[in-house]
Design brief:
Layout: H1 2-6, H2 8-19, H3 22-44, H4 49-68, H5 72-95, H6 99-104, H7 112-139, H8 142-168, H9 176-183
Helix pairs in contact: 2-3, 3-4, 4-5, 5-7, 7-8
Length: 184
């Protein structure tokens, strides 16, 4: 359910963009992000830092887009969010437990080197996404950027999680049924 809520603002932006324009879509993005936060609080009784960061950047750059009637600001938002996430991932790697380990480490017992590699992979993906977004946003058409933002970056995120799962597979706990069948 929580993952579905993460797509609410993106879906609102995409639909409104194709029905109206980028400025209405920016307003819808801001509104959907507020609704997302409210639903996270109501359903899960907690809003994660990443959602607060996203809300802050969406609010500031969305407001600038609407106030100045310049879509460059909403285009920058994506690169800035990915840049912030890359910095946070790398900072946690240096100063504390890596974020992937905090998210998955209670269920998966993997060596620190594995968590380091996953963190570096996630950070690199964020950096590549930020650079690709910037290039596409400011060198190609608005339609191309919107499609890349919605489909390209979403697909890249899914690929990242699939690769992470494959990389962690050998460290995942066995099912109790599987373990008992192997003993027989």
């Amino acid at each position: 359910m929580k993952q579905l809520l993460d797509f609410l603002p993106l879906l609102a932006f995409f639909i409104t963009y194709y029905l109206i324009d980028v400025y209405a879509a920016t307003g819808a993005l801001i509104a959907a992000t507020v609704i997302q936060l409210a639903l996270l609080q109501i359903i899960f009784k907690k809003i994660e830092r990443s959602h607060w960061i996203t809300f802050a950047v969406v609010s500031v750059f969305g407001a600038l887009t609407l106030y100045l009637h310049d879509d460059a600001f909403i285009k920058w938002k994506v690169s800035i969010i990915y840049g912030i996430f890359a910095v946070v991932l790398l900072a946690y790697q240096v100063m504390s437990d890596p974020i992937p380990k905090k998210l998955l480490g209670t269920e998966i017992d993997a060596p620190d080197s594995v968590w380091r590699n996953i963190t570096l992979g996630w950070a690199l993906t964020c950096i590549v996404s930020a650079i690709a977004n910037y290039y596409i946003a400011f060198n190609l058409s608005l339609d191309t950027w919107v499609n890349f933002k919605v489909f390209g970056l979403t697909a890249l995120t899914f690929v990242l999680f699939i690769v992470t799962g494959i990389y962690l597979y050998k460290y995942m706990p066995e099912d109790e049924e599987t373990s008992e069948q192997e003993k027989k």
